[in-house]
Specification:
Blueprint: H1 18-56, H2 58-63, E1 67-68, E2 73-74, H3 77-108, H4 111-126, H5 129-147, H6 156-180, H7 184-192, H8 197-208, H9 210-226, H10 229-235, H11 251-258, H12 264-300
Antiparallel strand pairs: 1-2
Length: 301
């Protein structure tokens, strides 16, 4: 016969199995290791990037418009603006398309079409970045040159389109998984109250999956900000002020394009660019986290 536990008395802790203790140690070590990696990367970028900023000057470095290592001129304002405009353009195109496609794939796609479409999305996620850049350079750049009657098709517009296509697989996959995780009871209750299926999907399923969808958007932004090779092949890689049909340079392409032959102050300046890129990504993540926490707080009221 099972003994009753006195009300209010402290419950004895269940002893951990030896295997559970080992896994707790392993998981804890993995968490500490991840934090250590972030701390080491942050410290290395600070140590490597600050000397050039001190020598050049913070304002001349951030607000300068000329990047000429031969004459020791290191201004990255055009590069920063290009990264901001390129990321915003890719997200404005990629996020709505990705979310709508995820809704179709997760809630409205016929069963006979789901498997081939899902395989196609997974294949897009597995294509190397250089292949995206190669297709963009061979197909997209000449198309832009012909359609808009420009002498050159390489520029910010081509980079935005390539980045928008590259962020789609992450947004679609994660958003679809989040939509499929919504309890079926939510949708059945909405349908029982007289809502149509479209109303149920957009007003019940979509809000219920907003945390997973937000994670998808964050992953998409991270992919857009951190991409280098594909962007380098279609943007022209020239440090001009950003314009749709002008050759431009992103923060990532500035580092990838010149780090191989740089030395002295030039090399230190590239580490400073990497530090600015790191801060740029941290600021984006911070803003998104604050926005999500604010929306969660409003939803709880």
């Amino acid at each position: 016969m099972r003994k009753s536990h006195p009300r209010g008395a402290p419950r004895a802790k269940r002893p951990f199995h030896p295997a559970e203790r080992i896994m707790r140690v392993v998981f804890g070590a993995c968490g500490v290791l991840a934090i250590a990696f972030v701390a080491v990367i942050t410290g290395y970028l600070l140590v490597s990037g600050i000397p050039a900023i001190r020598e050049i000057g913070l304002l001349p470095f951030l607000l300068g418009t000329t990047w000429q290592p031969g004459s020791d001129q290191y201004g990255i304002a055009p590069v920063i603006l290009t990264s901001i405009y390129g990321t915003l353009g890719a997200i404005l195109i990629g996020v709505p398309l990705g979310l709508l496609f995820a809704i179709f794939l997760g809630k409205m796609c016929p069963k006979r079409l789901y498997t081939p479409i899902r395989y196609a999305v997974d294949l897009l996620a597995g294509i190397p970045s250089v292949v995206y850049g190669l297709v963009g350079m061979i197909v997209l750049v000449p198309c832009i040159q012909t359609v808009f009657h420009k002498a050159y098709g390489q520029g910010l517009l081509a980079a935005i389109v390539v980045l928008a296509v590259m962020v789609l697989p992450s947004i679609i996959s994660v958003s679809e998984t989040a939509l499929r995780a919504v309890p079926r009871e939510y949708e059945e209750a909405s349908l029982a109250l007289g809502a149509t299926w479209n109303e149920t999907v957009f007003k019940v399923s979509f809000p219920a999956a907003k945390s997973g969808i937000a994670a998808a958007v964050v992953l998409g932004i991270g992919r857009a900000v951190g991409e280098a090779m594909a962007v380098m092949m279609v943007c022209g890689n020239v440090a001009n002020m950003p314009a749709l049909f002008t050759s431009v340079r992103f923060l990532t392409t500035a580092i990838a394009g010149e780090m191989g032959y740089s030395s002295g102050l030039h090399r230190q300046a590239l580490f400073s660019v990497a530090l600015i890129l790191y801060i740029f990504i941290m600021v984006i993540n911070l803003i998104l986290n604050l926005f999500l926490k604010r929306r969660a707080g409003e939803g709880a009221k």
